[in-house]
Specification:
homotrimer, mainly alpha, uronate isomerase, domain 2, chain A, 19 helices, Uronate isomerase (chains A, B, C), glucuronate isomerase activity (chains A, B, C), Uronate_isomerase (chains A, B, C), Metal_Hydrolase (chains A, B, C), isomerase (chains A, B, C)
Chain lengths: 469, 469, 469
């Protein structure tokens, strides 16, 4: 059985000139607290602080980063527990065995880095996953998950988390957030994030029901466009009162563009009547986004954009298992034209912050760095999802820094539902950024002192500045 | 006269930490057999096993990789023998002199690596090409080409080829393949590849004649769309019976999309009547492609895509010299939307394999790695044509691996008509992949044992898995 | 106060195998003369040879490369002197203090390299810019600017400039160029560049006035399209007679496409009547560009393209401060289709040279290298504007060289209005190219002798060949 041992220098550059510099820079930031301004961990976990279930339901089934490559390798999603209302302990163990048996397919991926970090650093396991070690690893994790040290709050402390954000429906009552706020034994910070996507897609199935519900929850009549605006302002205020610092938006394209009120009224009425066309719905959605931006300039909630993903690309998988199971595929994105109207309107407004993310790396040097290099409101979002990985993160710095420097970027965003992977994800980011900075020192483009200062800023200063923490 | 000497470490990373690792990984794969699932070497060469002609007609005239940069440097294609029905020995020698005289323009290109490898390793020549050495090199090559050791079959053995595929018209009788199959003295494998491009472009000049001929050869009446389908199935079956493992497709875009049969009937009738519009022809072609995919899911022939090249960009050159002479220019490609319908239909079908290639590197991290990281049917094609080069190949691994790992890629494809360059092309790929793996070891992202295993898989396992060998 | 000291090896690769090679290659080119075939330094400076003003008006206010990141960091453009008709000495000093106070935001950007090079190498200042050092640096620069050694001509000599081009309106009388030509004490070369953009945008405000003026200046009636052509030919001839070697063009897209004369007549008449639509104006502009290309094939002026920038993206900034103040944002560009008509027409014409630049890096390997690798008329422009930076320049070589080698590129272009930054810009380019070449030597892809030769060519041979100097 292969031994699992994490090299302390992993992911740092191999160049013998740069390695010791990277080691020193990384050492200076590795133990800094974790700031996580955007993610998907449920607040309820921390509010209720119940023990986690079995290893599979915690680490495997809900994590589409892991499932997708297993699916590509011939394992069915059902066998991994996806979409299964009942999943026996034997099935859960078998699912975990699939993961370990196929462990070699993750070579070269960040999943491997994250998961092995979790095994070694959280669970103290020194076995490499394989068919031979699957059961032993499974048992070792399971045995620890039932102990108090592995409850959500204990891990929050152990992970050194200082701030974490959840992602929430505008109609959510944020009960878990309120429960935490009211709990004198809780000393952390869990902020909600306003995620109104579904309420901005007037041609999508169920939109009218959602808007009805929005009316009920906000106590505002959403029969008119003006009502929609008022209801949104109402819910944003509610989120802000419950600690929210940002709103998050993921649509097919990045376009944000106003239409005049009369046209908005007309399209809104069409949509409420269920008679809006796809093209009109796009127009209305882009106007809804402009309205969100206007509200952001007013209430100061930071606006993050995660556009241009083809959701549920494999229709049969969506029909069987639903959304978020690994078949969302990125598309090309365009920002320069798409954001012109909103930045002409709010780009220099003191209250407005916009953090655009992309999986289309071509926009980093071409569009996002130039935008963030001029607009005080724009902070380039770090690599997200598929490209939250060592080489992609290094390419990001290489593409952004020469135009926008270090200060105009968002700080690391883990964006994860995999709670136990959070330390490893932040650690990986710190390693990569340390390596990038060390390379600049090795090329005499920065002094070591400057690099140490920049590294600290990337971990602490940037997320606080971009997300107004 | 400059001496030509190949450094054994050429193209391996210079980093002193990584170099010895790369050397060890490369040493473990350098002598593995060559598997070449897609290329353009004529089967007739191996069937007839006649000696090659002069150096120019073998190495220069037919190789647009070489000609194009000479053309850009002011040498006319005619002087290189392109499109010349007669070309005297003096002209052939002069053409070769052009190549050697302009040898410096190839600095930094893979043509240089390939050609110098051929000179040194196949012909044992130790002179650097230049105006001064042109004739001596020419004579040294010519003297060897007439010897038995330089006949096609002898080179096949010497090169260590295990499998090679040709590219063939659907109406081809595959006589050379049959001759080889019937020859007890032949122990290699030369598989045909079904390349139906011209039969799928209903607005192109000559399409109706081709479809008539398809009807004759298949014995199926191609007067109707149903007939086209039956004729295609017939020819695919014929190719498969003659050893084909794949079909290859190169159109302006990657879109594959079905239309209903009535609409297909209507457009097909229009096309047969010579009255189809350009837009309708695109629609019909994308439906033809969908039909090919459906057949692939049935008969199991692997589908490879090579889209988005502007063919014959310089019209006057095409008018004078015809196609494939060096003025095809790549364009941007889109895969996420374009492949959605076909992957929704066949993406998880057990018999279906799709290998998309691209010269537009932007789709590697954005689209192809995510697609291959979910769909068990999709294997990312390695860099092709212009980007079959060391740094581009390293960028490919850097863009693909973090999302799709190593197992979801196609294995190296030489795609060449330059028979003598095949060993050098595969060697270059092995060097680059070894260097990439060594870097991961140097950064403690892989162990050396894992890298050795992955390197072997890339050369042997991946092409066998992707192409079902 | 931090000491400013330039490391002699700055920006050279850190890899210990490559560093000494890079040092040797760089040493061989660092002192070669500067050839600057495209830029924005006013000829009047050299013609009149007056002392420069204060440090801010020379180094800060007119340089949007510097201003933009200060603006993003919260400094108003007005405080930097932009668009201010009066700016007191106190304001100038305060502006410079803003720059120094925010110096850390430039970490990792080429602005830092250029500016610190200017401080140390031109002014002999050994203080790192900061709030503490701002005044001392300001005074040290101011004290030197009034001395004879810092007059434009003295600096021209000290910088080792051999050739420099300005950028001029077609109606410009080129008086300063003529003055220089007539001055026996002047031994340098300052060539005008024909920049007709505004005369090719028939829907833009003021176009008709410009065309009227073009008629007056050329003495040709511009009432008809034929008149426009004749007037353009007239002014191109005037520029050529005054030493111009090239024309420069920057439009929203790269399309160059002819229409027939009757249609051109019709659209031209519409435009002159102020009734042309936006779409028709694009058509006419692309035809105007085709006409410029035809003239270029005739008169031999090299055509440079700088397309696909969204000018004045932040409308309120444009309304207040005008153009060229830092809010131009790049867009995606397409060249393969866009240039097909013009290259089919003139791509192999002996007199025609086309140098396409891009800020969209995706076209380097996909489109520009293949184009320059076939067409003798096409030379790939080096990275421009936002990507005139070390890592971007290295990516450029990595993307271009494997397809087009070294000979098919333009040589370095500084494109700057910042006269004092010219040596640093060329120096940075030489460092990066030396590093790239050294890497090839370190990987045994070039010999050191070949790299030395290539480095010299990039600095001397390429610009002379591309720009016919």
């Amino acid at each position: 059985m292969a031994h699992l041992e994490l090299n302390p220098d992993r992911v740092l550059p191999s160049d013998p000139t740069v390695r010791p510099l990277a080691r020193e820079i990384y050492a200076s930031v590795k133990d800094l607290p974790i700031i996580s301004p955007h993610g998907h961990v449920p607040a309820q976990w921390l509010a209720d602080d119940e023990p986690f279930g079995d290893p599979t339901s915690l680490l495997l089934t809900p994590d589409h980063y892991v499932n997708r490559l297993l699916h590509a390798s011939g394992v069915s999603l059902a066998d991994l527990g996806v979409g299964q209302s009942t999943f026996t302990p034997e099935q859960a163990r078998a699912a975990f065995r699939h993961l370990c048996t196929h462990w070699t397919v993750f070579r070269g991926t960040p999943v491997r880095f994250w998961f092995e970090s979790e095994l070694a650093e959280i669970f103290g396991i020194d076995l490499m996953p394989s068919a031979d070690t699957a059961d032993e690893i499974y048992d070792a994790i399971a045995a620890q998950l039932v102990t108090p040290a592995f409850r959500p709050r204990a891990l929050y402390d152990r992970f050194g988390i200082e701030f974490i954000a959840t992602t929430d429906d505008p109609c959510d009552d944020l009960a878990s957030h309120a429960k935490l706020a009211a709990d004198p034994t809780w000393t952390g910070t869990v902020a909600p994030t306003f995620r109104p996507d579904k309420y901005l897609e007037p041609a999508a199935a169920g939109w009218n029901d959602l808007i009805d519900r929005l009316g009920e929850v906000s106590g505002v009549d959403t029969g008119s466009y003006a009502g929609w605006l008022a209801a949104m302002e109402n819910r944003r205020a509610f989120f802000k009162a419950n600690g929210a610092v940002s709103t998050d938006h993921s649509h097919r394209d990045a376009r944000i563009e106003p239409i005049d009120d009369a046209e908005a009224d007309r399209l809104y009425a069409l949509a409420r009547a269920g008679r809006i066309s796809a093209a009109e719905a796009d127009t209305l959605r882009r106007n809804f986004m402009f309205a969100q931006a206007r509200m952001a300039a007013d209430d100061g909630l930071v606006m993050t954009l995660h556009p241009a993903v083809y959701r549920n690309h494999h229709t049969p998988t969506f029909d069987t298992y639903g959304a978020d199971v690994g078949c969302d595929i990125p598309m090309a994105v365009e920002y320069t034209n798409a954001l012109q109207p909103v930045l002409a309107a709010f780009g220099t407004s003191p209250g407005f912050h916009l953090v655009p993310f992309t999986i289309d790396e071509t926009v980093y040097s071409r569009e996002l760095a130039p935008l963030a290099g001029f607009y005080p409101s724009v902070f380039v979002g770090v690599p997200w999802w598929f490209i939250d990985a060592p080489e992609a993160m290094a390419r990001f710095r290489g593409a952004i820094t020469e135009t926008a420097g270090f200060t105009r970027t968002s700080g690391f965003i883990d964006d994860t539902r995999a709670y136990l992977s959070i330390p490893a994800r932040h650690d990986l980011s710190r390693r990569v950024d340390s390596g990038y900075l060390a390379k600049l020192v090795g090329e005499h483009r920065l002094t070591l002192d400057e690099a140490l200062e920049a590294a600290h800023e990337l971990v602490v200063g940037n997320p606080k500045r971009a997300f107004k923490l």
